[in-house]
Design a protein that fits this description.
The complex is a heterodimer of chains A (about 450) and B (about 550).
Chain A lengths: L5 H12 L6 E17 L2 E19 L2 E7 L4 H17 L23 H4 L3 H15 L4 E18 L4 E17 L5 E8 L7 H14 L10 E6 L1 H12 L4 H5 L25 E3 L21 E5 L2 E2 L6 H7 L11 E2 L6 H6 L3 E5 L2 E8 L4 E6 L3 E5 L2 E5 L3 E5 L1 H6 L1 E10 L2 E16 L4
Helix pairs in contact in A: 1-2, 4-5
Chain B lengths: L2 H7 L4 H4 L8 E2 L12 H17 L4 E17 L2 E19 L2 E7 L4 H19 L15 E6 L11 H17 L4 E17 L3 E20 L4 E6 L19 E3 L5 E3 L5 H16 L2 E2 L3 E7 L1 H13 L4 H5 L13 H5 L12 E4 L20 E6 L2 E2 L21 E2 L8 E2 L3 E4 L8 H6 L3 E6 L4 E3 L5 E4 L3 E6 L2 E7 L1 E6 H6 L1 E4 L6 E10 L4 E9 L2 E10 L5
Parallel strand pairs in B: 5-7, 11-23, 12-19
Antiparallel strand pairs in B: 1-3, 2-3, 2-6, 3-4, 6-7, 7-8, 9-10, 12-28, 13-14, 13-18, 14-15, 16-17, 19-22, 20-21, 21-24, 22-23, 24-28, 25-28, 26-27
Helix pairs in contact in B: 3-4, 5-6
The chains are: A alpha+beta (about 450), B alpha+beta (about 550).
């Protein structure tokens, strides 16, 4: 399937819109091509390619709306899908929270598409697998990994004159290396819009080194420890904090962001004053779309400034209820970092634990944002500025709020899962039990 | 959850945020759900196009799955309908073995030409990957079943029930909760119909019609003075049943300890929402648990999830062998432990069974997604590990030559692989009620319903919460508790299993969206048990101040 250009997408959307007889109509057109390869036990297991394209029409009459979808774009199909959405709208119950589509908007242009990524072939994917499998054998480790690449486009048009278009590419790679004696495990993750930044051999070697370094881990008592969290470890907890920026839940009194006595925590200092979090679709390291599914423009937005909650996300309905401007959810998250490298963070640590990754994170108490989970694939004891030995994995029970109040040092930022997150040194991170898992 | 999914669903409310992308298929009208779909004879012809194309291109094995997946979801909050979604997804997935290597491709162009193209893509992928293949695929033999069919034994097809009736039920449940002190309620109905046609070069043509349903809600109560909020989830279970699950039959109700109402094969949503509101409010002032060791009395709707995580997943052979090492992980239950024939998984009374045949369960189908007739088999007998869960291309690795029939793909466009069957704890053989069990406990906690769950990648160390907690002192329930989570190690936990109630208390809990694989696929699975006592389990207090 082709990735439609802006003009091709516009033409299809205009044609579809011409069949509308509803009070308002909003149409999105999406398409993607993706390919993947999966391997384990040092050999390939499955791989596949996938294409899809979809046109979604939402028609509304008053507060009633109906949605219909189709994957063929000839005139007859376009007319059929618009009519079907109108029939559905007439039959549906009224939604008192329905918001009429937005009028024309201005969007920034973000550099989310890369030709090289869009042209990845099955042979490229096989080579990625080989980059892990080949070096694994001689080091007496076994590789299990997954590589996925995609190219996609997304366009939106409505009867109030709005038109938006974006195309993007993405690749994601993870590999787990386990030593053949079963006592060591290492892992790495990489993701980019631009394939030229991706080096499968370099990444695979990081996982191999961690696997070998983590062999024959020693048990140490669970308790409160100073930890150095790699971005792959902290992101699991941080995203849970970033996901709780919904203003409505906060106003309703059922969110960590709810303020005692009513209202939200906007303007309150909740974490260490060195922490600044914002989103910016134009950031060159983590570019993302400049509009969301409703066509709202996405701009640079501060969420936490000097530890203070600066903004929460208001959907259009809730913004109207509260008499404020809508603030869409972010399409990426950037947490400002410091200058320290991982090596420097280790060097400045008298006694602590280096954590590669946190796993199986689940909420325990939404009131305090308490989460539980475990360390995985490389946990090391640090003494007097050096990695002393690997340690057995721990279960933690910790809140990102407590964690970010116990910040010791911010390190350099790393791109992870489309976000930019710094290395962090944290005091008194709570480990509650030991795990035998490798 | 990946960042992109977060963005996609963020605007749809919390229910939608948790919804896997597969469930957001093509939208159709409720009436269109009733369309019978492609005739079975045409399906056979189409499947033969794939099988013949594959064989001509050099495949030593091929299967084709023509799937029509129909879903209906209804979401409401308080007095508002948020969304009614009807979706249909139709296409064919073709899997081949060429040069000892799997290849898979799919298409929604279910025509002779479309199928030929997809089949040749699957062949090309297999050929490309065979270059780095080290272990050629070996399939366990399977019978040729010819042309056959199977249907979930439902009484009421959800597709025949008007949407307005479903909306009325949810809004009535919501009103019941709000009238009994709830501040908020989100409720939803998930209904699934998989119409699957399977054909393979082994000589089977299998037509199946599978139904599942899950009514659920989440009630929140807020204490504005203290700024505390607590929620209470539904005590329903997702089931392999039709709309009759919502009949709320008195004969399927079980009176639980602490005055709670529990449900077997029929659910009374309005009654449960009423109770949920009262219990959510009670939770706001419940006693915070003292950390320490307790005897736990675990109700089936709670225990099912513990079984799922600590027995179901570690006994999946593909995990044991390392095929899932990069995602879900591996397993503490190694081949050596199985082969020793004396690995003590649990105490002598622990019998854990895998089963794809139990009526009303989510895993119940006639044949799996590679054409193997389903069955029931032991995983743990009298506390000893006796078997894993395996499919055609892996079962030979544990010296067996018959697939267990637990292969599944979430859709026609995903490749099938080993998925968990229902894994259940057999009921106690002697007559023993929940009341009797509680009488026998000196210091304990009764836990009902599912809550927070987390377990490590080899399934040793776990931590579970629940929906409702009641303190047991000297054989009596003395009041509600909060901030409870228990931590244990799988083998230690199952060896602390002291007593199991009899079959009168036996019922299912289920997981509608169990995730596994890369790209991740969901599947639905049930876990049966009776209320069970575990002695001396470590309980932690999860309360914090920030």
């Amino acid at each position: 399937m082709a990735i439609y250009t802006k003009e091709q997408a516009r033409k299809i959307l205009e044609k579809a819109l011409s069949f509308s007889t509803a009070d308002a109509c909003e149409i999105t057109l999406d398409g993607s091509n993706s390919g993947n390869i999966r391997y384990a036990r040092n050999t390939v297991s499955t791989s596949g390619q996938r294409s899809n394209q979809t046109l979604v029409v939402q028609s509304n009459f008053g507060l009633r709306s109906g949605i219909s979808t189709i994957d063929e774009f000839d005139d007859a199909s376009l007319e059929k899908v618009v009519k079907r959405s109108e029939e559905l709208a007439k039959l549906s119950p009224e939604n008192p929270e329905f918001m009429a589509p937005l009028g024309p908007q201005k969007y920034d242009v973000s550099n989310t598409f890369n030709e090289e990524t869009a042209n990845i072939t099955p042979e490229f994917r096989t080579k990625v697998a080989e980059s892990s499998i080949k070096p694994a054998g001689p080091k007496d480790v076994t590789a299990a990994g997954f590589f996925n690449d995609s190219a996609s486009f997304n366009a939106l048009m409505n009867s109030n004159g709005l038109f938006a278009y974006n195309k993007s590419t993405n690749l994601e790679f993870t590999v787990t290396m386990r030593t053949n004696d079963g006592t060591g495990s290492g892992w790495v993750t990489r993701d980019f819009n631009d394939a030229s930044k991706f080096d499968a051999t370099e990444a695979s070697n990081v996982a191999i080194s961690k696997a070998i370094l983590s062999k024959e881990a020693k048990a140490i008592e669970p308790g409160k420890y100073t930890v150095i969290l790699e971005p792959a470890a902290s992101i699991g907890l941080l995203t849970r904090l970033f996901y709780s920026v919904d203003a409505r839940r906060a106003d309703e009194g059922r969110s960590f962001m709810s303020k005692e006595g009513g209202g939200t925590k906007i303007g309150e200092k909740i974490i260490d004053e060195r922490i600044n979090v914002y989103s910016d679709p134009l950031h060159p390291e983590v570019p993302s779309a400049t509009f969301n599914g409703q066509g709202e423009p996405l701009k640079k937005m501060k969420w936490i400034e000097n530890g203070v909650v600066k903004n929460l996300a208001y959907d259009r309905f809730w913004a109207k209820e509260k008499g404020v401007e809508p603030i869409p959810y972010p399409s990426n998250v950037i947490m400002e970092g410091g200058d320290a490298s991982l090596e420097e963070l280790i060097k400045s640590t008298k006694k602590g634990i280096l954590v590669t990754r946190l796993w199986y994170i689940r909420g325990v108490d939404p009131q305090t944002l308490l989460f539980t989970g475990l360390t995985r694939d490389g946990t090391f004891y640090i003494e007097n500025g050096k990695i002393k030995h690997p340690v057995k994995n721990f279960r933690f029970n910790e809140s990102p709020i407590i964690m970010l109040n116990n910040l010791e040092t911010l390190g350099k930022q790393v791109r992870i899962d489309g976000f930019l997150i710094p290395y962090m040194k944290i005091r008194e991170f709570t480990f509650t039990s030991l795990s035998d898992a490798v | 959850m990946k960042r992109r999914q977060f963005i996609q669903y963020a605007g749809l409310g919390t229910g939608a945020i948790m919804m896997p992308s597969i469930l957001l298929g093509n939208n159709i009208s409720a009436e269109a759900l009733l369309n019978p779909g492609m005739d079975v004879l045409i399906k056979k012809n189409m499947a033969d196009v794939a099988l013949n194309t594959a064989k001509s291109a050099g495949a030593t094995y091929a299967d084709a799955r023509i799937g029509r997946y129909l879903n209906q979801y209804v979401f409401t909050r308080e007095d508002k309908v948020q969304n009614v979604v009807n979706t249909e997804s139709f296409g064919i997935g073709i899997r081949v073995i060429v040069s000892g290597t799997w290849g898979f491709a799919s298409t929604n162009t279910v025509t002779e030409d479309g199928i030929k193209i997809a089949t040749l893509q699957a062949v090309a992928i297999a050929k490309a990957n065979s270059r780095i293949q080290k272990d050629p695929v070996k399939l366990a033999p399977v019978a040729a079943y010819g042309e056959t069919s199977w249907k979930t034994p439902i009484v009421k097809d959800f597709k025949d029930v008007p949407v307005s009736e479903k909306v009325d039920l949810l809004l009535t449940a919501n009103a019941a909760a709000m009238n009994n002190g709830a501040d908020y309620i989100n409720s939803g109905l998930f209904m699934v119909n998989e119409q699957k046609y399977f054909a393979s070069t082994e000589g089977s043509y299998i037509d199946q019609d599978i139904h599942r349903i899950w009514p659920t809600f989440d009630v929140t109560a807020i204490d504005k003075k203290t700024n505390k909020f607590k929620s209470r989830q539904a005590l329903s279970a997702p089931m392999g049943m039709g709309y009759e699950y919502l009949d709320g039959l008195d004969s399927e109700k079980i009176a639980g300890p602490g005055g709670i109402q529990l449900y077997r094969n029929s659910y009374d949503m309005v009654e449960d929402a009423t109770a949920a509101a009262k219990q959510a409010k009670e939770k706001l002032t419940a006693k915070s648990v003292d950390a320490g060791k307790y005897d736990l009395v675990l109700e089936p709707n709670h225990l099912g999830l513990t079984i799922h995580e600590s027995v179901g997943h570690p006994l999946e052979l593909d995990r044991v062998l390392g095929y899932e090492a990069n995602y879900a992980g591996t397993s503490f239950a190694t081949l050596e432990k199985l082969n020793s024939k004396n690995f003590k998984y649990g105490s002598d009374i622990v019998n854990l069974v895998a089963d794809k045949t139990h009526p009303n369960s989510l895993g119940n189908v006639g044949y799996d997604d590679e054409g193997v007739k389903t069955k029931k088999w032991d995983l743990v007998r009298k506390g000893i590990l006796t078997n894993f869960q395996a499919i055609r291309d892996q079962v030979h690795m544990i010296g067996q030559n018959e697939s267990h029939g637990c292969c599944y793909a979430q859709s026609w466009n995903d490749v099938q692989f080993q998925r968990m069957p229902n894994v259940s704890l057999e009921a106690g053989t002697e007559k023993y009620s929940v009341d009797e069990m509680i009488k026998d406990v000196k210091k304990g906690i009764y836990i009902a319903g599912r809550g927070s769950f987390s377990i490590d990648q080899q399934r040793y160390n776990f931590q579970f919460g629940g929906t409702l907690f009641y303190e047991i002192k000297d054989g009596k329930i003395v009041g509600m508790l909060e901030d409870v989570a228990y931590q244990s190690n799988t083998q230690e936990f199952w060896n602390s299993c002291a007593k199991i109630c009899d079959k009168d208390d036996y019922r299912f809990m289920g997981s509608f969206f169990d995730g596994k694989g890369q790209p991740s696929q969901i599947s639905a699975v049930s876990h049966g048990s009776s209320t069970t006592r575990f002695n001396g389990v470590k309980v932690i207090n999860t309360g914090r101040s920030i």
